[in-house]
């Protein structure tokens, strides 16, 4: 790869999409110039209705340098506890396509321009430069690795399966399978991308330019699938605990601290319980408001208890959550039993024992979404139950947990602490991706 790739990002999906072109755009099909408010809707026969005509798709490209457009009612944090709608502004081209009876707005732009937004959307653009450089490298590596993966799946021509289902077990992971008409989405399912809404700082522009084309490669010279989350909770999780059953040597278990090998075997239930209920030292175990302000945007800072947290449900609340989120009637909930844990103490498999049905579910995100109206902060939790409520089931369930997110790869809060303590970006990267190497692709 010698030149910077172009990227397509799915922004939102709806039956009607409202935008405003803030400068002239060129409509490829009719060779006309358009500007100002634009409304797109889907027709009953699956076409794009726009400006009184029907189209298979609509592609609008900037007619002048620096052109941008606004999109209204973009949902961020889909199904998470900070979910909300925003008006967002984007540079580059926009394409309107039809998917599953709805319209999807796709933003097309160069990779490095996309990364300027990701760095500002995933965290504060005022974070320290070395931390931002490290994040630029992993965001670029992850992105290009996903594009390569899409090509490999398409070339094989076989269906990519991300779940297994039997009478006793449902194991599902959430990754790339639902993006077939664009490279990545704009929300936390992929990487937060909010266009130029959160204006980048000179520092962000400088770190993107300083790391331009720089990626992480594994021991075979392939792009690293460089994942990241807000807080690992003290120990890194391994890739296969969260996604497809493939081990990556650069995503090994380690403690998020100066001594990477100083941690118990958290796949053992007794060790996991002690670790989660404790408050062990780690880079990401910080309450420093200045550091957290670098990592967490305003809506992220609504969460204070990310390193160790507690959630309580009554019996009826939990039974209702599980029924609604899973679509399965378990009846009343008798127990939540750990079946398998990963290297960070996160549950990979959890047995839900109900009065009507018992089922093992996994992996971590399936567990998190099933047990909450949004998503639990992580699947690293232990369960405490209340007394019998008179129906032969516990009156309440208390979940005591650790970390925020899947815990694989770079821990954003831990990496920010390392940067604040003077670590260079390559030191940060090698702490979280041990054995990987750095290389410029373009």
Helices, by number, come to: 9
* Biggest pleated-sheet summary: 11 strands, mixed
- Cα separation of the termini: 6 Å
- Low-confidence stretches at least 5 residues in length (pLDDT < 50)? none
Calculate the mean pLDDT score and round it. Answer: 91
General form: globular
Range of helix content: 10-25%
Number of strands: 23
Structural class: alpha+beta
Assembly category: single chain
Q: Determine Rg (CA atoms, Å).
A: 23 Å
User: Strand portion, in percent?
Assistant: 25-35%
Short summary:
This protein has nine helices and 23 strands. It has 442 residues and is an alpha+beta fold. The strands form five sheets. Strands 1, 2, 3, 4, 5, 6, 7, 8, 9, 10 and 13 form an eleven-stranded mixed beta sheet that branches. It has a five-stranded mixed beta sheet with strand order 11-12-19-18-17.
